[in-house]
Design a protein that fits this description.
This protein is α+β, with helices and mostly antiparallel strands. The chain contains 11 helices and 7 strands. Strand 4 and strand 5 form a beta hairpin.
Length: about 350
Amino acid sequence: MIWLTWRQFRASAAMMFAALALLAVILGLTGPGLADDYSTGIAACTTESGGCTNFLGRFFQERQDAFLAVTAIVLVLPALIGLFWGAPLITRELEAGTHRLVWNQSITRTRWLTVKLALTGLAAMTAAGLGSLAVTWWAGPIDKSATDGYPRLGPLLFGARGIVPIGYAAFAFALGVTIGMLVRRTLPAMAITLVAFVALQIAMPLLARPHFVSPIRSTGEITPSRLDGLAWSRGGGPLYLRVKNQVPGRTGAWVLSSHIVDASGRKVDGTMPVSTTSGPCKPPEAPGQGASSCLPEIKRLGYRHQVTYQPSSRYWTFQWYETAIYAALALGLAGFSFWWIRRRVS
């Protein structure tokens, strides 16, 4: 049974691992140079008066396309596994009727499905793990320079690093197998698998991941470093204030919400009820003036910057939580598949 499963699976496995080998070669050739450029730049910028902010921004911008490309590869890999390994695994047997031939040769349904799930599932998790390991190693310097725009716990970066791609691959594979067994048609099964997997991948960072651990809420004074924009309306209209989507002193934090609150703690839309015709918040006479004199008045009125976030220090805790969730879902789908094939498939 193992030999038969391997014969059926070896072509698609060879294509997948050949593509991963090519990716590993490319990353292996370019990775050391990338790391050297980063370490050299960091060593040089630490002696400059302005620090490393400019260098980090420039370093990321120059390599942003490559960063997004390798990240997309790891994000797409589990979906491809579900489509091309999971969905056809049982469906093509049911469409062709070859499953009956195997079952009539002293091979039980449970053993038949166990071998198929174990062999192909382990290969799927191995492929995802290798891809994630290679990209995580290669993109390390770029990840460090992109902590504010792409936090480690954020939707884009989190799912393409660490161990969670292994959980994604296991779930996508089990999802494809289960849907294929229910639908019994390869193309519809592939389409449904893709839609279901993408839907869960969107829902997880939006609805579940922010609440794995209670987020931290921080409220502080509106300072120039927190300010993202300040504008005066013409003719003595209202003053508009906008704050940054960042947590001061918490580099790489995943910001869930960032807004201004009044003295009673209620969220405001950024319109400040202060006089703009006279006093400290009147329009500046020259560009770049006015904010420093107006912010004390904003503080006096009780307005603060409130941020809700997950610190980057929880990265590995969240990695294990999310991997466990997807592993549990994969095991649940596998268990359902065993129940279904013993009672519903003929």
